[in-house]
Amino acid sequence: RMYGWLLWAAVGATATLNAYGFPPLLSTMTGSLFCLAWILQNVKLSALVKSFLGGCSDVFFRQIVCVGAHKLNRSQDPLLLAIAPHANQFIDPIIVMKTFERPIGWLCAAKSMRYKRTLADVVAFFARAVGAVPVERAQDLAVVGAGRVARCQGATVHGRETRFSSQCKPGDSLAVGGAVSARIAEVVSDTVVRLPGARGGARGG
């Protein structure tokens, strides 16, 4: 799809409005709308977003230097990029996209790619636009269970007013105080579960 007529329409609309004495700003904006329509029809959204993000990096950083990038860009083999430790989860992909010529499939938390009708939807838009791959994280799927953990005896966890039988199953992760403790090996009853091995004492809270 080329839609070259949109470019001619942009030129014609701008020239015609100027000839009839319309304000230059109005005629320029009209022509720009035709140009924008042409861009949307012929340029991929991912390319536009990458160009925009690359421009943002030029604003915030005086100079970006990448050593040895030609070795990766020259290779045709599949590559796995591990960027760690990183200072910022959003800045790093922008810098890599600017210096890396090959298409990249970024891993992104699935939670960040869901639209929530909040300001965070900006992140979801950009992640989807660059073709990020959503990955579910355990902490994003965690739910608060009934009751509380009373004590841990070896690899056996005892709860108080809990419903382990209906809310847990073998293979789930048991978290106490926001930290993942261990995977559940067996659900004994509503108040008792067994773990493959104790990972520190769990206290009720």
What does the secondary structure layout of this molecule look like, with pairings?
Blueprint: H1 5-19, H2 24-42, H3 45-60, H4 69-74, H5 91-99, E1 107-109, H6 121-129, E2 133-135, H7 138-141, E3 148-153, E4 156-160, H8 164-167, E5 173-176, E6 179-183, E7 186-187, E8 192-194
Parallel strand pairs: 1-2
Antiparallel strand pairs: 3-4, 4-8, 5-6, 7-8
Helix pairs in contact: 1-2, 3-5
Brief rundown of the structure:
It is built from eight helices and eight strands. It is of the alpha+beta class.
Strand line-up in the sheet with most strands: 3-4-8-7
SSE order, one letter for each helix or strand: HHHHHEHEHEEHEEEE
Number of helical regions: 8
Strand content: 15-25%
Q: What is the SS-derived class?
A: alpha+beta
Roughly how much helix do the residues carry, as a percent range?
40-55%
What gyration radius follows from the Cα positions, in whole Å?
A: 27 Å
Please describe the biggest sheet, giving its number of strands, its sense, and whether it closes into a barrel.
Answer: 4 strands, antiparallel
User: Span between N and C termini?
Assistant: 63 Å
Explain what you see.
With 205 residues, this protein is α+β, with helices and mostly antiparallel strands. Helices cover 40% and strands 15% of the residues. It contains eight helices and eight strands, in the order αααααβαβαββαββββ. It has helices at residues 5-19, 24-42, 45-60, 69-74, 91-99, 121-129, 138-141, 164-167, and strands at 107-109, 133-135, 148-153, 156-160, 173-176, 179-183, 186-187, 192-194. The strands form three sheets. It has a four-stranded antiparallel beta sheet, with no helix packed on it. A two-stranded parallel ribbon has the order 1-2. Strands 5-6 form a two-stranded antiparallel sheet. The longest helix has 19 residues, at 24-42. It is elongated and about 85 Å long. Mean pLDDT is 81; it is low at 198-205.
